[in-house]
Amino acid sequence: MSISLRVSNNFSPLGWKISDNVTEVERKIRKMERIEHKMVAVNGINMHVAELGKGPMILFIHGFPEIWYTWRHQILYLASQGYRAVAPDLRGYGDTTGAPTDDPTKFTTHHVVGDLVALIDAVAAPGEDKVFVVGHDWGAIHAWALCLYRPDKVKALVNMSVPFSPRNPIIKPIDALRALYGNDYYIVRFQERGEIEGEFAVWGTERVLTDFFNYRKPAPLFLPKGIGFGNSPDAPISLPSWLSKEDLAYYTSKFDKTGFTGGLNYYRALNTNWEFTGPWSKAQVKVAVKFIVGDVDLTYHSLGAKDYIEKGGFKKDVPLLEDVIILQGVGHFLQEEKPDEINKHIHQFFNHFSTTEH
């Protein structure tokens, strides 16, 4: 698969037409066209990577249901501030190919960290042994794993939405989640291969994406069989304030092509992760960290996360945790909902390390 790095005449590589009369949307498109796209062979897969800028490398790791595009605001801003922003599509997502989506055991944190380490080795500048890392949702989980498995690769980390989760030596994650929340809890619902994909097919890609993007309840997410988010399939699709029609069209085009199975496989590998991570029981994350979460993010109100963050458990497991930011009135997709705030938090934190290196 090849991806054009050039724009000819009035056509955007994102697939959006540009007219002679420049609108705000079209200005954004033209900024986006500066982002370069390439394929990199890593760890047995072909990884699509979006990047922009020169300087210290920042690796952006997306979550579900996301792709590299979730970082568009951060890529543009951090590149303008003297950083090199690198945002891959993780295995099973977007334009990355080669991962066997029919085998969830190939989607463990070990596989993904292997992909990311190989990517760093392939694209980092000569002599750049460590890079800055930013993660969100599943990207945060993989960033925590990267810091556990290969702390020698990470200068500092900004993680969002999902705090570190120490391994429970007694019970597997899916068993624990089923006992705590029951069979309608979304992660439990995702376990049966093909079942939730069938429901997603009935709802349609656009509705699935907007239902996730619009979810702002400060509580665990339940998706009862046949009911899902509770919206009628015939109801008009509404966009969150931070997402344009063009943004949704781009996300939809990518998930129409790949389906959701690749992303769902990360949830299906949770118990396999548990089996492989015994050697890291009680291990601490010993990398400098800033953590950011919205106060209406479901992750902040699930699995005891709020108490863990606020009552000392988080700092105990991540002793170099330097700052915790709770954004008021902000939901799960905070890097898109509040890009200016997130951009400044990332820049301020990493700039401290960049300055001290010179």
**Average pLDDT metric:** 92
- Biggest pleated sheet: 8 strands, mixed
How far the N terminus sits from the C terminus, by CA atoms, comes to 40 Å
Order of helices and strands: HEEEHEHEHEHHHHHHHEHHEHH
Return the CATH architecture: 3-Layer(aba) Sandwich
Helix amount: 25-40%
Number of strands: 8
Counting structural domains, the number is 1
User: Unreliable runs, pLDDT <50, ≥5 residues?
Assistant: 1-13, 16-20
Fill in the CATH topology: Rossmann fold
Overall, the morphology is globular
**Rg to the nearest angstrom?**
20 Å
> What name goes with the CATH superfamily?
Alpha/Beta hydrolase fold, catalytic domain
Strand order of the largest sheet: 1-2-4-3-5-6-7-8
Count of helical regions: 15
CATH top level label? Alpha Beta
